[in-house]
């Protein structure tokens, strides 16, 4: 009888240890791309004492100029600013925060509760609202990306 109790206690301890060890396993990082993926249109911008409002962006849109951001589900992205475009990558390791990487520079992005996407780099911020992709799609082929000022300088040397 005593051996049976010891055996039962040992089995229970072993089961508890298995449950505890299994619970301590490494958790897989979540991917929150679905929260950010889509086409976004700039609606406000600020930086270095300057401020642009939604009405400023609407006026520019009337001239066929605008700022659009396309965050693709595969982690690639395109940013079109007033007719020129740049490609890059992005990630969303948090539910409402992520990072864009373009031309080797990182740009923080945050998604507010009212679905405004804000890109922040140093003292500059751009706020975006999500739009229907049929309204405006950022359509950039890798060879259509305009070179940066630095690249142009290097080519001219």
Descriptive account of the structure:
- With 157 residues, this protein is α+β, with helices and mostly antiparallel strands.
- It has one domain: Lipocalin.
- The chain has helices at 2-23, 33-36, 54-62, 149-156, and strands at 38-47, 50-52, 67-71, 76-81, 84-94, 97-102, 105-111, 116-121, 124-131.
- A hairpin with a 2-residue loop joins β5 (84-94) and β6 (97-102).
- The longest helix is centred in the first third of the chain and has 22 residues, at 2-23.
- Mean pLDDT is 77; it is low at 13-19, 140-146 and 148-154.
Class derived from helix and strand content: alpha+beta
Q: Which residues form runs of ≥5 with pLDDT under 50?
A: 13-19, 140-146, 148-154
Helical percentage: 25-40%
Q: Which CATH top level class fits?
A: Mainly Beta
What is the N-to-C order of secondary-structure elements (H for helix, E for strand)?
A: HHEEHEEEEEEEH
Any idea what the CATH architecture is? Answer: Beta Barrel
N-to-C terminal Cα separation, in Å? Answer: 91 Å
What fold name stands as the CATH topology?
Answer: Lipocalin
Q: How many structural units, i.e. domains?
A: 1
- Taking all Cα atoms into account, the compactness measure Rg is 25 Å
Describe the SSE topology:
Elements: H1 2-23, H2 33-36, E1 38-47, E2 50-52, H3 54-62, E3 67-71, E4 76-81, E5 84-94, E6 97-102, E7 105-111, E8 116-121, E9 124-131, H4 149-156
What's a quick, concise take on this entry?
By secondary structure, this protein is an alpha+beta fold.
Please supply descriptive tags for the structure shown above.
globular, Lipocalin, 9 strands, alpha+beta, 157 residues, eight-stranded antiparallel barrel
């Amino acid at each position: 009888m005593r051996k049976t109790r010891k055996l039962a206690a040992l089995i229970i301890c072993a089961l508890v240890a298995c449950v505890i060890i299994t619970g301590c396993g490494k958790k897989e990082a979540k991917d929150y791309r679905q929260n950010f993926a889509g086409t976004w249109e700039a609606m406000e911008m600020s930086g270095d004492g300057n401020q642009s409002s939604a009405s400023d962006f609407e006026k520019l849109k009337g001239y066929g100029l605008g700022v659009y951001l396309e965050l693709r589900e595969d982690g690639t992205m395109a940013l079109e600013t007033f007719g020129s475009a740049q490609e890059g990558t992005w990630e969303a390791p948090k539910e409402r925060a992520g990072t864009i990487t373009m031309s080797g520079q990182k740009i923080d992005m945050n998604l507010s509760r009212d679905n405004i996407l804000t890109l922040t780099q140093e003292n500059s911020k751009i706020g975006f609202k999500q739009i229907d992709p049929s309204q405006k799609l950022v359509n950039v082929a890798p060879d259509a990306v305009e070179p940066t000022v630095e690249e142009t300088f290097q080519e001219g040397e």
